[in-house]
Amino acid sequence: MNDIYTFTLIALLLVLSPGPNGVLILKTVSAHDKTSGVINIIGLTSATFIHGALSIFGLSTLILHSAELFMLVKIVGASYLFYIGAKTIINSYKKHQNTSSINNDIPNKKGTKRSIFYFYSEGFLTQLLNPKVSMFYLAAFPQFVSFDNSHYLDAFLLVAIHASIIFFWFLGITQVVNSIKNISSESRVSVWTQRISGSLLVYFGGLLLSQQASK
Known about the structure:
The protein is mainly alpha-helical. It has one domain. The protein contains 9 helices and no strands. Helix 5 runs antiparallel to helix 9. The longest helix is centred in the middle third of the chain and has 35 residues. The chain is globular and about 55 Å long. The chain starts with a helix and ends in a 5-residue tail after the last helix.
């Protein structure tokens, strides 16, 4: 645990790098509200602990060193990103049509009816199905801990640090996006934000398919 600060820096850089998590938060807050974004974040952090547990108990290594399993994870993860990206784009056109024919005072009425589980599962699945996170735990994680019974607590402490960075960083992003959304009352801003977010999610889905497993 002498290198805990180094691990924290690496985890921070990973979280700050562009990826589907940030796009998901942007999409959710612009289309719905801040609370929905926070629920997304809780899903992200929960899945991070799953990735940590898989790495600690060796399953991550098994997946990344099996071409068939890794390909399956990539296809499922990319398909999910394609799905939520395309759905976001389609919904933005539906919303635009609705707001052009009714009063702009209720542009998000339909969107706010999504359940807590819906937003939680979006965040959870986006993080869980991202092979890049598994590769992070395979490549970086073992350098900082020893995977024996006496060190499990230390290993999960590092996972908790990573999850905390994710939570507070995206909480800040949620606040910023929500503030911009409140300042700009133009429905077109929200609509185009959703379309761009959806397109980026589809793009990241394509990146996942082109990703290679580590040797």
